[in-house]
Design a protein that fits this description.
By secondary structure, this protein is mainly alpha-helical. The chain is 46% helix and 11% strand. Strands 3-5-6 form a 3-stranded antiparallel beta sheet. α7 packs antiparallel against α8.
Length: 254
């Protein structure tokens, strides 16, 4: 919940231009700092942070807003009050115009989904924007267990010929190679997962980070009658495994 919002003048050189702002309460830091300050690996915190991030993205999507720049530094830690998604500076509204709507990649390129890295722009706003958010939710999960996002990880497994900066043809022709690189990256990620959540979180991240935006998301959502990019099922999945981790943590403390 914001403390204040409004608009302020952009500066002396732009007397008629205003810039919108939102002020939130001060956080204790972001999730990267929390992980750096924690002794050992706090599975319960990581899974709850992932759950809270997905809830934040769902709230934005319900308002027809895409975040487009979800990454560890934009997930704030409020210690005993959970985590919240922050920095809407690159967000896009389905019902309005944003200054960066003409950009292929609105957010940080190091966390961008592959279709945008290869310049593939869907005419469907939901595919172009909501699918990006799903990919970045999955990438956040990968970061928590490997210390890098999925984009950096699959780049390590892709022949340089097929890297975005070197590829001059369409995305459809390079997609098989990108998918193979993703599969290897998923395997590396899943090797880092605890046994008790590997069979749950592994498939969820594969769905969220599918390199084909047309196949991205929960299989049960891939229907014309529902929002294929709904994150509600993943919220439930993340909440379930977070509760398991929290229960086990409490047991070790008693």
């Amino acid at each position: 919940v914001s403390i204040d919002d409004g608009e302020v003048p952009a500066g002396e050189l732009h007397e008629t231009l205003t810039v919108p702002y939102i002020i939130f309460e001060l956080a204790d830091g972001d999730v990267r700092q929390r992980l750096d300050q924690t002794d050992g690996f706090d599975l319960a915190f990581v899974l709850r942070a992932l759950h809270h991030s997905a809830v934040g993205i769902r709230q934005l999507h319900d308002a027809k807003v895409a975040h487009q720049d979800l990454k560890p530094s934009n997930v704030l830690d409020f210690r005993d009050d959970g985590c919240r998604v922050a920095d809407l500076g690159r967000s896009s509204s389905q019902d309005g115009n944003s200054p960066h709507d003409n950009l292929v990649i609105a957010g940080d390129t190091t966390y961008a989904p592959p279709e945008l890295l290869y310049g593939h722009i869907s005419p469907d706003w939901r595919v172009r924007r909501f699918a990006c958010d799903l990919y970045q939710i999955g990438s956040l999960a990968v970061f928590f267990f490997t210390q890098v996002g999925i984009t950096a990880l699959w780049h390590e497994y892709l022949d340089r010929t097929f890297l975005p900066d070197n590829w001059g043809e369409g995305y459809a022709s390079v997609l098989p190679h990108v998918r193979q690189a993703h599969d290897l990256a998923f395997e590396e990620f899943e090797e880092q997962l605890p046994d008790e959540i590997r069979g749950i979180l592994g498939p969820a991240v594969r769905q969220l980070c599918d390199p084909d935006p047309g196949r991205r998301g929960h299989p049960r959502n891939l229907s014309q009658r529902v929002n294929r990019y709904s994150v509600q099922r993943y919220i439930s999945i993340f909440d379930r495994i977070a509760r398991i981790a929290e229960w086990r943590l409490r047991k070790t403390m008693t």
